[in-house]
Give the backbone structure.
Amino acid sequence: MSKIEISNFNSYYGDFHAIKNINMNIEEHEVTAFIGPSGCGKSTLLKSLNRMNDLVSSFRKDGNIYLDKKEIFSEIDVYDLRKRVGMVFQKPNPFPMSIYDNIAYGPRTHGIKDKKTLDEIVEKSLRQAAIWNEVKDNLKKSALALSGGQQQRICIARAMAVEPEIILLDEPTSALDPISTAKIEDLLEIIKKEYTIVIVTHNMQQATRVSDKTGFFLLGELVEFDKTEKLFSFPSDKRTEDYITGRFS
Ligand SMILES: Nc1ncnc2c1ncn2[C@@H]1O[C@H](COP(=O)(O)OP(=O)(O)OP(=O)(O)O)[C@@H](O)[C@H]1O
């Protein structure tokens, strides 16, 4: 079953038509990658999935996005939507507080106060994000004192702590070294069993390594969307072929 259905979706910043008539289904427990040159609208579409663009005053949209068949702009409360659809950004952005408090922040906001329950959530989330062993003896330490790669896994743990159904990742490894990148890529493979993941990446090798399906975007249009293996081995569209072979100008 498709977890998300994007239907005739357009978006605009003022007069600028950033996303053009996108139709796309995102399947549950899969990793879907968005690739394409800078400015082609990948992040705009990603952020539309949890309505982060609502915060931009010039943003407008038409068309629909459905989550489990419910329309996200008209049938789901935005607060509930953001609880169900978590997001991790390009630059690790832990809050200036302890590792523990970073992870407990979301659950506390949702009313969980019991220390034992919070302890369990913190441990489970840090384990899922494959960083528990590195931080378990220092949970009171500031998250800002960790390395970039560790901070990004803290941000992934923080997103998972409120048990979302979908995790959106906007170029999550572009600021990280190869070892941290590999850790996050391994992590995606494990967590997709429980979550549905959408990732924007500039790194085509990364898309081939982590994703089940890939969408190639150009100038706001979805040029091609297919199984990752197929899209990278036998692209149907000449523009996709030019892009993935580096002949794009
Ligand atoms: N808040 C905004 N206000 C006005 N224009 C915007 C805004 N955000 C994005 N845009 C424009 O919309 C277009 C798509 O931007 P978007 O960030 O979605 O592209 P992208 O494919 O994710 O690019 P990149 O790979 O560089 O992150 C760009 O032309 C960009 O300048």
Summary: Strands lie at 2-13, 16-27, 31-35, 59-67, 70-71, 85-88, 166-170, 196-200, 213-218, 221-227. The mean pLDDT is 95.
